[in-house]
## 1
Amino acid sequence: MAANASPNADGFCVEENKDNVYETVLGEIKYLELPLGITLGSVYDDQPNAHQKFIEKLDACIRNHDREIEKMCNFHHQGFVDAITELLKVRADAEKLKVQVTDTNRRLQDAGKEVIAQTEDIIQSRIQQRNITTVVEKLQLCLPVLEMYSKLKEQMNVKRYYSALKTMEQLENIYFPRVSQYRFCQLMIENLPKLREEIKEISMSDLKDFLESIRKHSDKIGETAMKQAQQQKAFNTVLQKQNNVRYGKNKYINDGIPEPRNEIVSKQNLAVEDEEEEEGHEDEVLTAHDLVDFSPVYRCLHIYSVLGDAETFENYYRKQRRKQARLVLQPQSNMHETVEGYRRYFSQIVGFFVVEDHILHVTQGLITRAYTDELWNMALSKIIAVLRTHSSYCTDPDLVLELKNLIVVFADTLQGYGFPVNRLFDLLFEIRDQYNETLLKKWAVLFRDIFEADNYSPIPVTNEEEYKNVISKFPYQDPELDKQCFPKKLPMSQSVPQIYIQVKEFIYASLKFSESLHRSSTEIDDMLRKSTNLLLTRTLSSCLQNLIKKPHIVLTELVQIIINTTHLEQACKYLEDFITNITNISQETLHTARLYGLSTFKDARHAAEGEIYTKLNQKIDEFIQLADYDWTMVEPDGRASGYLMDLINFLRSTFQVFTHLPGKVAQTACMSACQHLSTTLMQMLLDNELKQISMGAIQQFNLDVIQCELFAGSEPVPGFHGETLQLAFIDLRQLLDLFMVWDWSTYLADYGQPGSKYLRVNPSIALALLEKAGCPFCRVHRGYVYLPDILHSGSPDKEASSQKKGSLDSCVKIKGLYFDHWPTQVLVPQMLVLFPSVFDFLIPKMAPVSSYEL
């Protein structure tokens, strides 16, 4: 039973649990607001047909609720009926109240229409007032923006671009953020970049105009800067001279004669006063800033800096200025023709770099010192190349000197602005050599003109004034001449003082170039001496040599030239003193360069002496050409030939002019003339065209030689000892004596002995003259001796035969002496026909031969 009871008990428990589950589900359905799907799903998740039981349970629950509702309705029914009854009573009152309320509302509406209208007006007014207040507030917020934008437009119109950019910054940073929600602000914001670009373009256009302006005004700027530098230098020079005078330094002017110190001080004070007056007359000292408006550069630089594009501006400015520098450095093709061309060229360059220096110092970062130094080095190389080229075309020393002065002012001006100019001064030393060359060419013309205008005669002076005038120009001192009474003559010709003056003028001209080169007095003195040496050794020497070689210069003029060169040589020491004085060098200073006038004038004098000898010989030849001897005359005329007497008279008069020459020159000329005359006369006798000479012609010729010996013995030029001059005719004399006396035995016996009477007679000459004199036994043809006449004479006259045989023996002996002077190779194997009596005499004199045919 217990076992049977347990299943039932378990079944009961299960049924009870199921009821509890259904109750729970129903509770959830009634009270919970959860989705029913989950709850209902739990019913179907249990055993099969569980929903049937759930429905039954649900129906039971519904019946219970219906019973409760019915109980509640029954409980409240009487109260409901009472309430309905009261409600019906109230209905009538409610209808009345409704009518009353409706009427009251109608009347209220009628009465409130005006109030409503006024209220609406008030509302509208309040709305407008609120809107106005809002608008005012917004306008107060927008007005500063509009005012700033209007200010921006005004600044753009008046070209205040830098201020306009600042205004843009304020608009962007302060004002636009306040009104960024408005459309007009967006339009303004979009317009600002366009305005910036416009400002950049306008400022760049202004910069281009500025660059064009300074390119046009650079020459004016440079001219002003160079003028100021020149005035400052002149003022400093005057002050330095005053200081030198105060310290007692000597100043030499005009041939090195020192001026009194008080006169120097007074002159320099006057110079300072004049300088101050000139400065007083000037309105004001102009600078580059006064001549050019630099505001476009500053404005453009500030604008690009504000825009953050300063590097672009710097690159553009530097690029454009480099282009302008190349244009400025390009000279005109005819610049070398006038000094104005050089001045304009230098002014433009100075103006360019003065502007760059100003930009360097008033701006920050636009250009740098490294940039200007690079630009200057480039320009300096170009300037030096241009000056080298164009200065080489200059042939006028005055133009070269003005060019030098311009270069000095140009260098000093730029040096004042901090640019290095040492290379320019080095260039000046090159131009100095060219200047000296142009001076030498100019002075060569002056010297030639002086020589052409000279009369080559001593300078006549008729009174003391004329004498002092000459002495003031040329340092000449002669106590003997001073003792003579007027009128008198100075030994030199007019060209000597003129040459001396021109040499001094050359030194002055050379000194002008050496000034302002920043060199010491010693260096300037050395330069002057070197240039003067060139003048003396090259130019003056060449002019003298050309003068001496001119064919129209006669002997008297050559003599005067020698005298002139002697005095010019003596004046060289005065030229050295002159250079020392004008350069203010101490007399004790040892110079490396000395004047070479001594050798110059000696060379010219030697050339003149040689030309004298040549022309004198030429004149002798001209007289000899007038000789007209009758070589076949039987008897002489008894007097010397006319041409020879004229020649001797000419020589006498010529040698009288030689009295002013140095003794050795006159003696050498006289000896040379006599020797040439002797040689020419000898050649006349030995002329190949002269085939025969009679004894009468020889005697006439002897008379002419006697006159020559008499002339030589008359001592035409003092200084010869004994018969020295007559020795010039000794060859002729001995030869003529040999033929006049016919002293062949003595000649042959004494030949070759130091004490021979006819020592100067050459066998070849004696043989040639003997043949011309008519000896029938000898003929010489191409080095061979022929004796045909005596070989085939066959004369029956024994006396004549004996005489001819004696002449033949003498002739053969002379031929033997003649052969002594021939080389043995001259005698080639040929037939030689000789007498047996002289065969043994001639054979040893001849070269070995292969055969002889007798």
## 2
Amino acid sequence: MSDTRRRVKVYTLNEDRQWDDRGTGHVSSTYVERLRGICLLVRAESDGSLLLESKISPNTAYQKQQDTLIVWSEAENYDLALSFQEKAGCDEIWEKICQVQGKDPALEITQDPVDESEEERVDELPETSHLVELPPCELARLEEIADLVTSVLSSPIRREKLALALMSEGYIKKLLQLFRTCEDLEDLEGLHHLYEIVRGVLFLNKAALFEVMFSDDCIMDVVGCLEYDPALVQPKRHREFLTKTAKFKEVVPITDSELRQKIHQTYRVQYIQDIILPTPSVFEENFLSTLTSFIFFNKVEIVSMLQENEKLLTEVFAQLTDEATEDSKRRELVNFFKEFCAFSQTLQPQNRDAFFKTLANLGILPALEIVMAMDDLQVRAAATDILSYLVEFSPSMVREFVMQEPQQADDDVLLINVVIKQMICDSDPELGGAVQLMGLLRTLIDPENMLAPTNKTEKTEFLSFFYKYCMHVLTAPLLANTAEDSDSSDIQEGSTKINRVCPDNFQTAQLLALILELLTFCVEHHTYHMKNYIMNTDLLRRVLVLMNSKHTFLALCALRFMRRIIGLKDEYYNRYIIKGNLFEPVINALLDNGTRYNLLNSAIIELFEFIKVEDVKSLIAHIVDNFYKALESIEYVQTFKGLKGRYEQEKDRQTQRFRRYRREARPVEDDEEMWLNEDEDDEDEAAEEKGRSDEDFPESYEKFMEAKKVKESEDKENHPKWTSAGSFKLTLSHSAGAAHGANGANSKAATSTSATSPNGSSAKAAALPATPVVKTGLVGLVDYPDDEDEEEEDEEEEQSPRKRPRLGS
């Protein structure tokens, strides 16, 4: 059976009261003839063997826990549990069990453990008759009480009954009175028993008991009982810490007594869960789920009560932004807001939205802008945490605030620039704060969370703002540490180049690595804005200076930045890299690395492998032309030989293409020469028949020869590009001149004049009249129908220079 809904683990409770895993399989509910009833069958998913066969008895008490767990007892000391992979599967089997027993599936317990003989008298008996019978609350019976509490923990039904018994008899307060007595008598054995009892009562996981135990008059005694762990040589001093060391600070007076009590209670219960109680085992985690819920709902109440108290919050904000507020007071105010925001994470999404909107309306962001610029490290750290909550909640809200800030003459006052400066100036050697702030910046500039349909221009507007006002602040340390020093030059030490401007300080190198990581993110996600910025500042050249760093991680960051740029396969970037010869520092780093097979070596080779595989022609040609001699000795990978091969292939293709072009161009010239020779004969014959006055001929001929010489000189300068289209352009220029020179002469005379033109150049086309020539008599003149569309022909020839003019016949 492959249905994951029915996939379960089978557990049994051993003699040491520990759950043993019997295997994983798939459960089904099937009628078994041999047992004469509906049974739960679990077959192993590995080999299909039977892990469990349990008949659903009408009198067995089944309990559903945590939505995916069904627990029951088949014998006095044989408890079973099915842990489901999915809630849906648990619900299906639970409904089947309830159907067999005739119970409502909405119940979590199918049976009360009452004998059949007593069922008829259930309605007549008081509710307490079903409770566990507790021994008298006396010093002499503490061991018995401890054994009873410990023994019921394995049975959900018995835990329920014990909890009811403890509540009905006010037993908790009696036990805590015995605790005070034992402490006065220094009865260590009794105190150890009380530790087991109180710990067991907490594991009963009942909110009603917690309300009693964590009340103001009981909670310190509960903490006292938990100090006497039998496993410890000396008891802990938790009460001393809670009453003397831990101090409750009111940044502003809290007049609401209920709110004060809730804050105290939550702190102490959290202390019990986190500090006093030992870490629960896998099977004990569920025992304290109600305790976790108790703390959770307390926090929700605290946040709600504070949020509703606008007077208190307004006063807190006023003191936070007041310049007269003392530093110690301001530190407490910021810490208050930090705790406030941390508690807000327990709210439901809609309530959390309302909470952060309340803070935004009260002016949390302007307050943070002031606080983050202060010198106090603790205040700055707390303010950073608060900003983290706000950015995680709504990056758009923070971006909107930043863009609405008045543009001051000094960009340093902008919130994002304050964040960047804090990142740059982090005094922590490990740059813990800088890493956190970089994460904030990355979230703010991430276009993925700028796609809200309500504000489609947010991405464009914010990125333009960021690159205009903030990017120069972010890159300042990088540019400062890679600036060219006129007094310094590369110094040779053996075979390794050392650049003096390259940072050797580890903390500075870490900071530059963080900045490079952010810039690499920008290359990938801000293609337009980042491209302009890189070109305008020559940023890649400055980054590649870091390839000389003695810190390999920083050199790798610089290489990763270049790799991301090349990975875009943008010819704009490629031309920039070629023009700046920016492969040189990368190749120098590869050669300086020598024969060491390390991450730097592999990363550089991967860069060239990418260029080869993607066949980036411009970069391949540049690398082979300029660096192949230095790289051809590297033979342990075929990358560079492959680049050379790609280069040669492309060179051969270009050669073949050029030869094919020459072959295609030659017949055009031959055809044109033949056409010109034939044309001369036709025009000579036309000239003899028609004639032309000797007065017009010299003027036209001189203009023609002058234009012809000019064109021939142009053709000699651009001979490889000369085609018939060139002669066509000459024709157009001369035709205009001829038309101008022959103004007033008839079209026949103009044609006759062109026929006497020597040298066989495009005389026929040169003498084209402005209007079509009509054939008359026996003269064999050529009609040019296309000349009416002379302007269209001119446009076509400019677009296709190899295309010959269409000539009539």
